[in-house]
Specification:
single chain, mainly beta, Porin, 18-stranded antiparallel β-barrel, three-stranded mixed sheet, 4 helices, 26 strands, disordered N terminus
Length: 442
């Protein structure tokens, strides 16, 4: 089943934006119509990723080849550009026909994405960037908190490296620097949204069938491309006495969908139809970092208003109700001798509105632990553990990197999940896997 489609394709808007950008630069006299520019040459990487899920049933869950290619340079006086794209193909979805449904195979077999397509410029102390770009407002270990602008590819949960997992936005960003103050304004006229897995995928995280009802999930249609659906935000950063502080406000269509429920009369049993929707939300938050010598303190907090969450009341027509919430994380990064590094974090989501039929708990705390060790330039080992205290489920991720030749890296690791099946991590208890990656960078 399908939802309403945008009135104009994303590609058309992207082409229009780039055409407008190029025309403006030519009109300003900074760029010739041929875009003659100095370039730093092509850079990127080629990577193979393989993963084998060893829980019952055993299957190949990833056999993906990926190429990312880009270049950067200058346009005339004071203008810089960067363009980068990524393409991949996953053979696992061709080999495992008996495991994955056709919908999953079709959506996750291949991919193409513009990673960065932007122009940089400056007028005095004002710097601007126009185009497809990464806008990172926070970065804790293992999970997202203050990084509210980025969309994410969640078809592999939070397992990929964050620089790979983030989906850039088509945006206009201005930054103003004065002394130790940093002001930033962002307008996202063509927002990107999270990519989420479909039913039958290894890391599907949507609604589940209800006994006594048929189950149907509508296609993940995106909101209409119009100015009313733009995202915009402000961020203020301040460096004082070694404290790196920032506060922000962001109004957006939520990058992550909620699933609205509808009862459809069908025979012999009624059908529960779930439709992905993106709420208009408001977020206020902040970050802080402080180096105390023996460790670095980090903290992030975000308050979200307008997001709907799942409720258990069967009389609720949509299965959703508005809920204000606060997410925060407090951590310490501890470098040790002999190239050891330890990071510990405590995080929590607090639902502010008292509701007896809330599917989640009022307080959802947890913790993370990262232990990293390097042996010269060749070897690096890392272990990440994440546990939900409220739901008693967990994720464990050991890995080993081997830089066996110039520009080459091999990675070996495992992703293991356990605990209660209604938790954020325990629901993937059948998706435990071993994986390897080989990358050549150029």
């Amino acid at each position: 089943m399908t939802t309403a489609k945008p009135t104009q394709s994303t590609g058309a808007y992207q082409r229009a934006l780039l055409t407008l950008l190029g025309g403006a630069l030519c009109a300003a006299g900074s760029v010739s119509p041929a875009f003659a520019a100095e370039s730093s040459g092509w850079r990127g990487h080629v990577q193979f990723e393989g993963a084998y899920t060893y829980e019952n049933p055993e299957h190949w869950s990833k056999l993906r080849g990926r190429v990312e290619l880009g270049r950067q340079g200058t346009f005339g006086e004071g203008l810089k550009y960067k363009i980068a794209a990524r393409a991949d193909y996953d053979l696992a979805y061709s080999l495992e026909n008996d495991f994955y449904p056709p919908d999953v195979r079709e959506r996750q077999r291949r991919g193409f994405e513009w990673r960065e397509v932007y122009v940089d410029g400056a007028v005095g102390d004002l710097e601007f960037r126009v185009g497809r770009q990464h806008i990172v407002w926070g970065e804790m270990v293992g999970l997202f908190f203050a990084d509210v602008v980025s969309a994410r590819d969640l078809r592999e949960f939070f397992l990929p490296q964050f620089d790979t997992l983030r989906i850039p936005q088509w945006a206009v960003r201005g930054e103003y620097f004065v002394g130790d103050l940093h002001l930033e304004a962002v307008w996202v006229p063509l927002p990107s949204f999270d990519k989420v897995a479909r039913p039958g995928a290894d890391f599907y995280n949507g609604p589940a069938p209800t006994p006594g009802f048929n189950f149907a999930l509508a296609d993940a249609g995106k909101p209409t491309r119009k100015l009313d659906n733009s995202n915009f935000g402000l961020r203020v950063g301040w460096l004082t006495h070694g404290w790196d502080l920032a506060a922000f406000a962001y109004r957006s269509l939520d990058v992550n969908p909620v699933y609205s429920r509808q009862l459809v009369p069908t025979a012999p049993a009624p059908t529960l139809l779930y439709t992905p929707e993106h709420d208009r939300i408001n977020q206020w938050g902040g970050t802080l970092t402080k180096d105390f010598g023996g460790f670095v303190l980090k903290a992030e907090a975000v308050m979200t208003r307008g997001r709907r969450v799942q409720v258990l009341n069967p009389a609720n027509a949509t299965g959703l109700a508005p809920q204000n919430m606060v997410d925060y994380a407090l951590g310490a990064d501890i470098p040790l001798e002999d190239d050891w590094r330890i990071n510990v974090q405590y995080f929590e989501r607090v639902h502010l509105d008292a509701m007896s039929d809330l599917a989640a708990k009022k307080h959802e705390p947890g913790w993370t632990l990262l232990v990293n060790k390097k042996w010269g330039e060749l070897w690096e080992a890392e272990l990440i553990a994440v546990q939900s205290i409220a739901r008693h489920d967990w994720m464990l991720r050991p890995r080993l990197d081997w830089n066996f030749a110039r520009n080459w890296r091999a990675r070996f690791g495992a992703d293991v999940f356990g605990g209660r099946r209604d938790g954020l991590f325990g629901r993937y208890g059948d998706s435990d896997r071993l994986y390897t990656e080989i990358r050549y960078s150029f």
